[in-house]
Write a structure and sequence with these properties.
The chain is an all-alpha fold. The chain has 16 helices and no strands. The chain has helices spanning about 5-45, 55-80, 85-105, 105-135, 140-170, 170-180, 185-190, 195-200, 205-215, 235-240, 245-275, 280-310, 310-325, 335-360, 370-395, 400-430. The protein is globular. The relative contact order is 0.16.
Length: about 450
Amino acid sequence: MSSSSALSARGSRLALLVVGLCWLAVLFDGLDMFIYGSVLPHMLEEKALGITSAQAGDLGSYATFGMLVGALTAGTVADRIGRKKLMVSCVALFSLASGLCAVSNGVAVFGLGRTLAGLGLGGLLPTAISMVSDYAPRARAALTIGLLMTAHHAGGILSAYVALWIVEPLGWRAAFWVCVVPLLFVPVLARFLPESLSFLVARGRVEEARALATRYDAELPAAKDRTAAGAPWANLLNLFRGGEWVQTLLYWLASFGGLLLVYGVATWLPTLMRSEGYELGSALTFVVLFNLGGIVGMLVAGRASDRFGAPRISAIWFALTACGVFLLSVHMPLTLTFVVVFLTGVFLNSAQTMIYATVSIGSAPANRATAVGWTSGMGRFGAVFGPWLGGQLLAADKGDWGFTAFAMAGTASMVFIGIAALRTARSERRDGEPRQLVATG
């Protein structure tokens, strides 16, 4: 066996451990994120906590506002204190916050619970992405991130079945008690998840990194980047140095439209479909199909992005997403609607994830969590706006316009990420070699 093959084989055990634990954490993230949209039709029907359609949109935005704050702060914090500590804290936070939702006696307390949950949810995802990026094979980085994100949609599927099997006999509060269960996973994560080797080396903790690498027979990264040891905002400023500020803004704008689309659809899909005359069971079937499509899309988009480049695939996927979302505003036979929902899930969810993959692949290890966190955080402004917009349109009895508005957001993201892809291609031709932010495996 060659030395490179031996290193790959020795490091695979650590990579599997990290990806596996992060996958479970993101599964719980997806369950907690999607549970509100899954139980919302039931809450509106029984007028739980006295909420109206407009208030329901506001409550959906509370969680995404918390995710905005969590994503913006978590990347910088993770680059300072480490990925592991932050991931453990985030899982504990959104689990406990779900318990607060379960015992709430009014809209204010429920909204506080969703906001706190959002802080944990928003911090976990970019941190998990940066963690698995540290250990992913370079030629399969986008595919590994896509594999990780299948967990988010598996959580969405789980949320639909929790709503279907638990809410009807036990009530909506029971669904949020289920979301407290991930608290039991916190000790497991704290015990078995290793810290990022690249983070340890970048922070000058070389002996600690060497001990961890020896324990798992993994390759020790070279000490190439010590930017994490600088001022707290140094990593953020690095995103704007030289000509990088244009690419950074393009990714932020694309992420805004993408997350407006993702969370607008995730929050309102069951309710909008039920307003079209479908029964609750059928409306939740749309959630399952949407997230099944997301799982398939992550794997397909990840492999395609490793071959053709994440920005290019993301732009194409957003174009197809816009078409699919717009078709949902057209009355179609049930079977055809199922197909459109599935295909929309294939393209929508992975289009946004490939933005994260692009940023993560092209970032230095010590700066990676900040880059992904701020791209996610800027997108969270769209995530806040999406649920609110859907609630306002539904309250005005203009639900069909919701799908049209979400389709327009997808078109805008296609334009922004498409421009970023063209800029990358021009840079490659000028420099004579592929840029790192486009995977070349």
